[in-house]
Design brief:
It comes from Muricoccus nepalensis. This is PEP-CTERM sorting domain-containing protein. The longest helix is centred in the last third of the chain and has 22 residues, at about 65-85. It is built from one helix and two strands; from the N terminus they run E-E-H. It has one helix at about 65-85, and strands at about 15-20, 25-30. A hairpin with a 5-residue loop joins strand 1 and strand 2 (about 25-30). The protein is an alpha+beta fold.
Length: about 80
Amino acid sequence: MTGAAVQGLAAGFVGNGFQGPGGSAYVSVLSDTPFTSVSLKSGVVSFEAAGVIGSTRPISVPEPASAALFGAGLLGLGLVRRRRA
């Protein structure tokens, strides 16, 4: 990393970095392209990865099927209660 440049980013990635106190370097990378691994390499004696945060987009949940099953269960409980009364 030199200055504010992040080297070796693949296509579809946006990155930025800056040098902090004591010569520490901070990097931020954003991507709409899915990836499964991150490789961090350093040519200096000490290297630390702190605050690595990953996030994913929410996936759809088949709620109509769950709601129908729950409703059928409630209907069944209502019928059982009505027969006992």
